[in-house]
Amino acid sequence: MVANSGANDALVALLVLAALLVATRPAARGALIALAGLTKLAPLALAPLFVTYRSGRLRAALGFGAVTALILAPFDLGLLWDRTLGFQQDRDSPFSIWGRYGLLDALQVAAQAGAVLLAGAVAFVPRRRGPATLAALAAAVLIALQLAVDHWFYLYLVWFAPLVWIAILTPAPGAAAARSTPPAAAPARSG
Predict the structure, then answer these.
(1) Most CB atoms within 10 A, among 52, 110, 137, 178?
(2) Domains in the chain: boundaries
(3) How far is CA 16 from CA 12, 24, 80, in A?
């Protein structure tokens, strides 16, 4: 779907999945989330989640910051703002419920605030997170952001679809052991 369109949206999914794959390596996960976010801006909202995942928070933040600084260093930040977020700010689009149906601006602001709050909250709740939980939370953040923006396109589905599949298809911890344990034998009846 994405390859046929000549878009770079699959790169976002690749980088987010790579960050998930190296989640136990703090600097690498921070660096990969920075790369994903600088490919398309929405994955920047995953930074709090990936930086606070398990241990190495400082190293993850440093990896994120170093890659961001290295990539942004050669650019005029004012021009970069105008061509990215500034352009999106003034963009009308029929490809979202906000542009298509002219819904109240207050509803969209509430949806955007909710997405930002979710992105911040998942950095702290739940405290215990495995790879499947990390994938589910990352998917939730990306979906929330996509629901709140002015411009949405079907190619953005690939940003979160693999994360959803991982979250759904990963067995719960201990599920395999429970399935492989034979049932206890019933006591013999006397009589």
Answers:
(1) 137
(2) 2-170
(3) 6, 14, 23
